[in-house]
Amino acid sequence: MIRYILFSLLLAPLASPLHADDSGVESLRQSGKAFASVAKAVSPSVVNIQIESTSADPGMTRTPQPFGDDFLRRFFGDRLPAIPHYEQPNKKPRALSQGSGFVFAAQNGLLSDKTYALTNSHVVEGATKIRVRLEDGREFDAKITGTDPQSDVAVIEIPTKGLPAVKLADSSGLEVGEWVMAIGNPFGLRHTVTVGVVSAKGRTSLGINDYEDFIQTDAAINPGNSGGPLVNLDGEVVGMNTAIFSRSGGYMGVGFAIPSSLVSAVANQLINGGEVKRGFLGIVIQQLTPALAESFGLDRRTGIVVAQVADGSPADKTGLRQGDIIIAHAGAPVSDIGAFRNRIAMTAPGSPAQLAILRDGQRQELTVIVGTLTEDKVAKASSIQSAAALGLSVQAVTAQLAEQLDARPGEGVVVTQVESGSIAALAGIEPGTMILQVNREPVTDAADFKRAIDQTPNKRALLLVRKDGMQRFVALRW
């Protein structure tokens, strides 16, 4: 009897913690059921897209690497070559690849005889045949409604009706730390679900697309997820999975999705007009760095600098000048080049844009009637160039900059932006540094500099730079 009592007493302390943990286990169980419910509701709208094309192997990246040896890779398809640096893939007469997509309700509604689905532009690039497979196993031949490579959004038409469509949420309300779920076809494994959180918002200047405003997530994303939905716990799409940051080519905890608000705006323009019309001011802009702020005699460190104003452009007609500092747009503070550029681009041509600027230290309000961006206008606005492999951007030395930098117009280029952790940053190159030579040859403008870097043999360059009146050589390898 005594032994039984002692045995019971010994067990008692062990039983109590197990009972106390029941509430935690139940909480996890409920979370799991919530994820399962979202996956069950959204999965019928997610499609597997199989592509036959004559384009380059889409398993290889099309994007210059802005992070040195770490690089962002485009992905879809079940082949992922291990390549340490950017390379031009070999052309093939026929290439088979795959990606993901999802059915959505366009503003003008689903048509009676077809359904619209969204995916990435790079998924269907060069496609000669598109085959869509649904969760229930049905397959259809689809065709492209429209693509916008600049934002990497594409709309395809599926010749059937009645497919369930997911709702596109207003991604501006998304918060860092929220639970999200990625659904797609990584490595050809159809309808795979992964869960994570929103790691960051508003990621720009990554060198992936021309227009960037990425959601960063740690939900596992791999080759084949490209074009699939990123959804919240309400089963609404908050983003389109597009790219990963990886050393190996596989998941490393950093994925990027295009916000649903941008996807929706682009997609509905493609459906209604077959193309995307973007707003245009006619200015070249650069980040207001501490060095530039000091040279302008400013205490503030946020805003963007107008480096150039195109003759006859909307900005020129309004009186915007080189050297103006844009500090607000539509009442919202301006602090990032990419975000400002996106907002102007998504402004309907002919609409007013309210800008607050600093000119000679004094605040002024301007209203610019936004124009329409065309290819020739893009070419004219290319005086700021990026060398993504090095992780920096440069601009030609204008008359005003020359005075501030104690230089001559046309003498070298000035560094406007340096990516943290990049090759350039590790070499001690900072915004405001002048680059006078590349491989012992003088450079006179941004296009000249980019050409010299692109043509550098063996991925090695010798730069002659000047900062604070001191010149030095910098050897870079990438």
What form results from the Cα inertia axes? globular
Low-confidence stretches: 1-16, 55-92
The percent range for helix content is 10-25%
How many domain units? 3
**Spatial gap, N to C terminus:** 78 Å
Please provide the count of β strands.
Answer: 28
Query: How is the CATH topology of the largest domain named?
Result: Thrombin, subunit H
Task: Summarize model confidence as the mean pLDDT.
Answer: 81
Q: Name the CATH architecture of the largest domain.
A: Beta Barrel
Count of helical stretches = 11
Determine the strand fraction and express it as a percent band.
25-35%
How would you summarize the topology of this molecule?
Blueprint: H1 2-20, H2 22-42, E1 46-53, E2 71-74, E3 95-103, E4 115-119, H3 121-124, E5 127-133, E6 139-148, E7 153-158, E8 179-184, E9 192-203, E10 214-217, E11 229-231, E12 237-246, E13 255-259, H4 260-273, E14 279-280, E15 283-287, H5 290-295, E16 304-309, H6 314-318, E17 325-329, E18 332-333, H7 337-345, E19 352-359, E20 362-369, E21 371-372, H8 375-380, E22 384-387, E23 392-396, H9 399-405, E24 413-418, H10 423-426, E25 434-438, E26 441-442, H11 446-454, E27 460-467, E28 470-477
Antiparallel strand pairs: 1-3, 1-5, 2-12, 3-4, 4-7, 5-6, 6-7, 8-9, 8-11, 9-10, 10-13, 11-12, 12-13, 14-21, 15-16, 16-17, 17-18, 17-19, 19-20, 22-23, 23-24, 24-25, 25-26, 25-27, 27-28
